[in-house]
Design a protein that fits this description.
single chain; mainly alpha; 42% helix; Ribbon_hlx_hlx; Arc_DNA-bd_dom
């Protein structure tokens, strides 16, 4: 089952876009696909993907002692 995609406009600085475009080309992805990949990786590393278990020791109120 394919995931639903949400379209929205994104404004980037031209220099930032050129850097992402080159990186995406190096990874054989579209710019859009590479931005999505980078965001997903950042969210995964931060333990913020919906439905995912947060890593042990993450800084949440549930894990903090009072």
């Amino acid at each position: 089952m394919a995931r639903e995609k949400k379209a929205f406009p994104l404004r980037l600085d031209a220099e930032l876009h050129r850097a992402v475009e080159k990186w995406a080309e190096d990874e054989f992805r579209s710019v859009n696909g590479h931005i999505e990949f980078l965001l997903r990786e950042a969210l995964r590393k931060a333990g913020r993907l919906p439905g995912k278990v947060r890593p042990v020791g993450s800084d949440t109120s549930e894990n903090q002692e009072m």
